Amino acid sequence: MRTRTEFSKPERGSYEVVRIPFTAEALTAIALMPPQLADFVAGNTAAIRSASEWRAGRR
Fold this sequence. Notes:
Blueprint: H1 24-28, H2 35-43, H3 45-55
């Protein structure tokens, strides 16, 4: 659970977890920031998924 001060300031709006599929299409449909990160993640979903599965021991 995140508890830093930015999460307790109502004037900053609300923070809501939104789960989406880890696909290029789903990632480009949201406002992931910064744009350079959005482009990198959308273009490398297979490699990122593979690395996360390897790290988790699901090779």
